Amino acid sequence: MTAISVENLSIAYGTVQAVDHVTFEVRRGEFFGILGTNGAGKTTTLEMIEGLRKPDGGSIQVLGRSPWPRDSELLPRIGVQLQASSFFERLTAREQIGTFASLYGVDRSAADSMLEAVGLDDKADARVEDLSGGQTQRLSIACALVHDPELVILDEPTASLDPHARRNLWDILRGLTHSGRTVVITTHHMDEAEALCDRVAIMDAGRILELDSPAALIRSLDSPARIAVDARTLAADDATRINGVTGIETDHDVLTLVTRDPSTVLGELARLQCLDGVQVRTGTLDDVFLTVTGREYNP
Amino acid sequence: MNDTAAERSSAKASSFAAFGALCVAIMKGFVRDRTSVFFALIFPLMFLVLFGGIFNFDQSSQIKMIQVGDVALFDNLPADARHGLDELFDLSRSDDLAAAIANVRDGDAAVAVIESDGDLVAHYSQTDQVKAATVQGALRSFVDGANVAMSGVAPAFSLRTERVEDESLEAIQFITPGLLGWAVAMSASFGAAATLNGWRNSKLLRRLQLAPVSTRTIVGSRLVVTIAVALFQMAVFLGLGTALFGLKLSGAWLASVPLVVIGTLCFMAVGLLAGAVAKTTEGAVNMANFIVLPMSFLSGSFFPLDNAPSWLKFVSNLLPLKHLNEGMTDVMVRGQAWTAILQPALILAGFAVVVTFAAAKLFRW
Ligand SMILES: Nc1ncnc2c1ncn2[C@@H]1O[C@H](COP(=O)(O)OP(=O)(O)O)[C@@H](O)[C@H]1O
Ligand SMILES: [Mg+2]
Predict the structure, then answer these.
(1) C-alpha B206, offset from chain centre
(2) pLDDT attached to residue B125
(3) Residue nearest (by alpha carbon) to ligand 1 atom 7
(4) For chain A, N or C: smaller number of CB within 10 Å?
(5) Is the peptide bond between B344 and the residue preceding it cis, with omega within 30 degrees of 0?
(6) To 10 degrees, the CA torsion angle through A210, A214, A217, A219?
(7) Running DSSP on this structure, what letter comes out for residue B40?
(8) Nearest CA-CA distance, residue A85 and chain B, Å
């Protein structure tokens, strides 16, 4: 069962090829992420899927229907959070979501319980202008969910939030797929894609470079593990003599051992009693990005 | 195609609910915006109070006359003739002829009269020829009238003069429709400009496109709110004008209601144009102001253009606000029939269509 199927999707703004022959499928019930730097083409791709933009070429099916031209039977089945927080000016949180509920022909009581679901019940009577960044994003997600859509599309839901607020939002986002709902998000946070998504498409310059589960993407890197220990507990010479260590790096008081056999090396470190404050880092999506684009990831 | 009647009617009910919810949301947004409320209501009302207060004193057109010593003609008049004298002249007494003539020379009085051997001698200044002629004419007609009355013969001819305007026509009568026109033009254009630009920049316009409501519902709710605000402005203006400044509305004044509605549409179109061209909300409102404020001066909103040069009158006839003001003045205070709004209404509607079309052409997401 596919929720979204996109084939050879392309669009250009003047001479900028914003989206360039993009093909992918999102399965029903899946948490799907599009990961890329600013200007990669994520928003434009979503706008074509939502039916806000007409593609120059390619085909799109959303829940078995074509989003363009505007399909008023498809719209109630989709919930969208646009990248900007698009609210009515000077309304309170409750009035805001209540208005959206009415636009979708949904009872206003559903709106109130949705406010509760995103933890905004104590802010219900605050105007949107007075909400914090995290509260604004939660309200905007609540507005996208108020009509209980089958498919939710969120464009950078955690943009410009501090790490604490981001992690709070993750809990809400994780819950979205529980009722079999399909979720598509874009992000430029690697850790977010790793933490939330079943599958991730890595997008750069209008193209999809890789598409798989975060674990599979990292596995395919076949990159070595890096073990950092306190340089005062282990001399560099001793470190090179440990079995399986293929290289070392020193940086002030941190000594990093590079290895493809981390369990053996960790065992040896335990024997040498220098496990205090040890850090093990295997490959991450950052490394995947570096490998596929040849560039350091700089969101 | 295969909708049941029940489904259709429930769709209609929910689109009505959507319409109502949008109207409420937009209205709340307006009422809570102090700046908008100030410019739509308080600011124009300040002008009404100001102008109503300044121009509404009893404009005296009496001729200032100094009577030197006793003047039998004036002093022995029968009561009703004396009343006529007092209406025409602002009479003061003096015993010093030289001082009185000096007063006339300085322009403090229009004429000094003294009786000498049954003749009435009037000393006047020729500096202002029109005034001099008025003084002479008035005195002469008064003396002639007195002569006729003394002779006991009924006059063969008599002249009665009446002003063409309502007798009570005071400054407030002209000021109210003009200022109301300006107020309506301002709030309709600012509102449309700010909404279009604000909703585009916040992407609310796109967000609304994603909801299952038609463009008609969205545009319609914005129209209804703006028209309601305009009619509220009208009620406040006419109410305050009547209660505080002696505004008297003439018979067909209700015909100005549809005219205000069409005028609102026209100036919303102007605001849409400004909103489509400008990049920011502030820019859009400033641009609307830049169009509406000069137009108000040229359309006689602040002062009548009766004495303006003909080229200026020509320019003013090209402006929609001039026609809104004229139409409202005609039916509100000039006592014309409701049909007087037809021509201005057509012109305003024409402007609305053309300007909306231009705005739609220039609009970029
Ligand atoms: N309305 C537009 N007009 C012209 N160029 C645009 C427009 N929107 C986006 N672009 C360009 O298209 C590319 C993709 O943009 P976007 O889809 O917004 O990327 P992302 O969401 O990944 O940051 C960028 O180079 C951007 O500058
Ligand atoms: Mg984007």
Answers:
(1) 40
(2) 82
(3) A13
(4) N
(5) no
(6) 180
(7) I
(8) 7
Q: Does pTM surpass 0.90?
A: no
Give the residue carrying structure tokens 């606000």. B321
What is the torsion angle, in degrees rounded to the nearest 10, for the CA atoms of residue B344, residue B346, residue B352 and residue B357? -150
Under 8 Å between Cβ of A68 and A17: no
DSSP label at residue A65: B
Q: Is residue A98 a contact partner of residue B21, using CB atoms and an 8 Å limit?
A: yes
Contacts of B15 (CB under 8 A, 6+ apart): B213, B214, B217
Q: Is A146 exposed, middle or buried (0-12, 13-18, 19+ CB in 10 A)?
A: buried
Q: Which residues contact B236 (CB under 8 A, 6 or more apart)?
A: B41, B45
Atom of ligand 1 nearest to the CA of A19: 14
Beta-bridge mates of residue A256: A228, A249
Q: How many residues appear in chain A?
A: 299
User: How much distance in Å is there from the Cα of A212 to the middle of ligand 2?
Assistant: 21
Q: Which has the closest alpha carbon to A279: A299, A262, A295, A293?
A: A262
Distances (CA, A) of A147 to A60, A114, A137, A144: 23, 10, 17, 8
Domains and CATH numbers, chain A: 2-217 (3.40.50.300), 224-282 (3.30.70.980)
- pLDDT tens-digit map of B156-189: 776 665 555 544 457 788 889 999 999 999 999 9
Per-residue model confidence as pLDDT tens digits over B275-315:
999 999 999 999 999 999 999 999 999 888 888 899 999 99
Query: Are the C-beta atoms of A173 and A187 separated by less than 8 Å?
Result: no
pLDDT reported for residue B56: 58
Interface confidence (ipTM) of the complex: 0.85
| Angstrom distance (rounded) from CA A155 to CA B314 | 55
All structural domains of chain B, each given as residue ranges with its CATH number in brackets, are 19-56+168-362 (no CATH), 62-151 (3.40.190.10)
Please give, one letter per residue, the 3-state secondary structure of B8-39. Answer: HHHHHHHHHHHHHHHHHHHHHHHHCCHHHHHH
Residue of A nearest to B214 (CA): A72
Q: What is the average pLDDT value for chain A, to the nearest integer?
A: 91
pLDDT digits (tens, 9 = 90+) for A65-112: 999 999 989 999 999 999 888 999 999 999 999 999 999 999 988 899
| Nearest-by-CA chain A residue for B217 | A103
A chain contacts of residue B22, beta-carbon cutoff 8 Å: 99, 103
Q: Do A82 and B20 touch (CB under 8 A)?
A: no
Closest by alpha carbon to A176, among A195, A158, A152? Answer: A152
